[in-house]
């Protein structure tokens, strides 16, 4: 590992403690001094920074320290022959490097940092008394130091730090590169943020590129629409557009699976990135699902009952998930649906714009309360489910909370489109949602974190002036303190299972459903979506690099439950667009089985068959990915076979010699 020891030192983690007022005479008892010494014993390179209100301990881990932690965590990494083997410090050259040339990915490094930081315990033969600002802390034998200081409010937070060199490079080549439209340095994003965020931006970029074709088609239809004088031409062109966008959506979802598998094959993803055995910022390891203790006792006592015990546990878990899903669906139907329909009906019958504005303000406030309450209830229900790991629990939360957002986003549009059949009002609602809502949401998404950051800086300055400790203007000079004051990348429904990617994916899913389910009513909606997404790529990048803290890496390498939600929206769009075409064709409401209506019904069934049959026609993995995996498996099998034969032949020779003797 000597070749890698001269790598540039990068501080990637920070520990925050309050700035002490009373200086301890005996440094061996001072909490800050003990923390620094313990971090150095572990192998960290430490730098202390005194801020305005707090003190910061910046940590950098040499490759040797990370390698030792990876070996202790038994992290499996891909080797040059394609096999995933347990990492060994002495055999570092046998493992595949990351796109930037480093040995460990950001997700692996973060887990190693957390393992080392939260692995400091009192290994001495007696308890130690630590002091901080006149307060004594009894550090018992075998007790975890960081968790103890966190419980005493001495360690305020442990958080990841930005790498300034890589951050500035990404700002220049990605966030501020507006003229590249959908082109993004995905490999550099993966190296810096991890697989989950890189997958999100790859999905957003591909989705935006694919939007350009239906956007051009829809804009053309809108321009031609001004000259249409009869209904017959519209009844011919709109079904063609509808069929085209449905086929577009089906192909997009299938080709995204191929893109995702190609990215995973290109990146040296380890078991840490694709399974959920990682640490959260609390340092407690999130382990995969394990059989309950009762099952383990049954297995030890009676092997005959093994199958029955596991089946009982499996179906009990499925029943609990079904019960929770049914509870959420029943709550949406009984509580949220009447509320949404009442708002849509009042908005339709009211004439005064002022009253409509007040009604909308009350509606938006109530919806925020309902969504937050639904998210909290969903989290509590999910914690009682028998899910395999944290990512499975997060997917379950996505399904439940998306039901709330689906109802509040689309029920008013369904009311205008399917009940009143008012296409002019429907177009106005779609324009309002796509243009005003998304623009305002982008502004709030990027301005609110900056306002929170500014307010935190104001509070720090105000407290210092109130104590009389500062008379001149207070300047924040240390970058680590600025990063600490920035808001984290968190989800609107809470930080228990999801991060900010929940809101980003939710925005894309609601947009996808809106433009696709009502494509026949407003074809130019694809233009609004394409323009918004081109801006979204750069604003989201700027948000992650400049406005928020560096996100904690997620142990996942796919879009998860969101792909199933996109598939569900495609099915819904087939039904809703066929209903729109049927009502457009049957304006008098006679519902006679005429060739036009019959053709719409036949078209619906054909599109549903295409939706379920296209996955058989286009495989989810490219041929080169399958060939590469087969080649690696063959090489690994050959090497293992040769080593096994050598071992067996050596054993036979030794056995023969002993027999002759």
Task: Describe the structure in brief.
This protein has 661 residues and is mainly alpha-helical. It contains 20 helices and eight strands. Helix 7 packs antiparallel against helix 17.
Describe this structure in words.
It is a single chain. With 661 residues, the chain is mainly α. It has 20 helices and eight strands. The chain has a four-stranded antiparallel sheet, sandwiched between helices. Strands 4-5 form a two-stranded antiparallel sheet. Strand 6 and strand 7 form a beta hairpin. The chain is globular. The two termini are 45 Å apart. The N terminus is likely disordered.
List the main descriptive attributes of the protein structure presented here.
661 residues; mainly alpha; four-stranded antiparallel sheet; globular; 20 helices
């Amino acid at each position: 590992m000597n070749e890698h020891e001269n790598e540039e030192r990068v501080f990637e983690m920070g520990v925050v403690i309050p700035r002490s007022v009373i200086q301890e005479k005996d440094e061996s008892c001072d909490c800050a001094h003990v923390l620094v010494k313990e971090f150095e014993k572990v192998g960290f390179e430490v730098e202390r920074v005194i801020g305005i209100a707090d003190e910061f301990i910046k940590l950098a881990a040499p490759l040797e320290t990370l390698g030792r932690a990876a070996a202790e965590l038994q992290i499996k990494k891909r080797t040059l022959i394609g096999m995933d083997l347990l990492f060994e410090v002495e055999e570092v050259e046998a493992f595949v490097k990351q796109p930037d040339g480093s040995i460990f990915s950001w997700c692996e490094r973060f887990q190693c940092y957390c393992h080392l930081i939260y692995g400091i315990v009192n290994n001495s033969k007696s308890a130690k008394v630590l002091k901080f600002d006149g307060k004594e802390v009894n550090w018992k034998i075998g007790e975890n130091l960081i968790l103890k200081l966190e419980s005493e409010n001495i360690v305020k937070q442990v958080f990841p730090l930005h790498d300034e060199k890589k951050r500035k490079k990404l700002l220049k080549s990605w966030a501020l590169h507006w003229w590249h439209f959908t082109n993004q340095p995905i490999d550099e994003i993966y190296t810096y943020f991890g697989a989950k965020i890189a997958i999100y931006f790859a999905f957003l970029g591909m989705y935006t590129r694919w939007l350009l074709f239906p956007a051009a088609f829809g804009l053309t239809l809108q321009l031609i629409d001004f000259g249409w004088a009869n209904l017959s031409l519209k009844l011919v062109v709109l079904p063609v557009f509808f069929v085209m966008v449905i086929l577009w959506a089906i192909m997009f979802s299938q080709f995204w699976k191929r893109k995702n598998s190609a990215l995973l094959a290109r990146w040296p993803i380890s078991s840490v990135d694709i399974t959920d055995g990682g640490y959260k910022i609390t340092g407690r390891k999130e382990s995969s699902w394990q059989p309950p203790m009762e099952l383990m006792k049954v297995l030890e006592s009676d092997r005959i009952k093994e199958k029955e015990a596991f089946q009982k546990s499996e179906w009990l878990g499925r029943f609990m998930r079904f019960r929770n899903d049914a509870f959420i669906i029943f709550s949406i139907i009984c509580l949220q649906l009447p509320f949404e329909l009442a708002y849509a009906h009042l908005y339709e019958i009211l004439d005064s714009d002022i009253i409509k504005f007040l009604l909308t303000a009350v509606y938006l406030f109530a919806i925020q309360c309902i969504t937050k309450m639904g998210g909290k209830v969903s989290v509590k229900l999910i914690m009682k489910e028998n899910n395999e790991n944290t990512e499975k629990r997060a997917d379950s939360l996505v399904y439940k909370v998306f039901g709330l957002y689906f109802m509040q986003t689309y029920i008013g549009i369904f009311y205008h489109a399917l009940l009143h059949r008012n296409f002019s009002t429907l177009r106005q609602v779609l324009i309002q949602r796509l243009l005003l809502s998304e623009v305002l949401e982008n502004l709030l998404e990027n301005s609110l974190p900056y306002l929170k950051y500014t307010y935190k800086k104001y509070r720090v300055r105000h407290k210092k002036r109130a104590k009389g400790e500062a008379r001149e203007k207070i300047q924040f000079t240390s970058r680590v303190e600025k990063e600490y004051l920035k808001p984290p990348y968190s989800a609107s429904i809470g930080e228990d299972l999801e991060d900010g990617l929940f809101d980003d994916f939710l925005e894309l899913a609601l947009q996808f459903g809106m433009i696709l389910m009502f494509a026949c009513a407003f074809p130019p909606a694809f233009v609004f979506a394409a323009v918004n997404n081109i801006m979204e790529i750069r604003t989201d990048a700027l948000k992650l690099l400049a406005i928020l803290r560096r996100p904690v890496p997620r142990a996942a390498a796919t879009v998860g439950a969101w792909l199933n939600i996109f598939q569900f929206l495609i099915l819904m769009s087939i039904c809703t667009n066929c209903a729109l075409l049927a009502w457009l064709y049957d304006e008098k409401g006679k519902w006679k089985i005429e060739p036009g209506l019959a053709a719409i019904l036949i078209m619906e069934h054909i599109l549903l068959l295409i939706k379920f049959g296209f996955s058989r026609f286009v495989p989810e993995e490219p041929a080169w990915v399958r060939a590469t995996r087969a080649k690696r498996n063959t090489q690994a099998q050959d090497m293992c076979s040769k080593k096994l034969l050598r071992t067996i032949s050596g054993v036979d020779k030794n056995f023969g010699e002993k027999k002759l003797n």
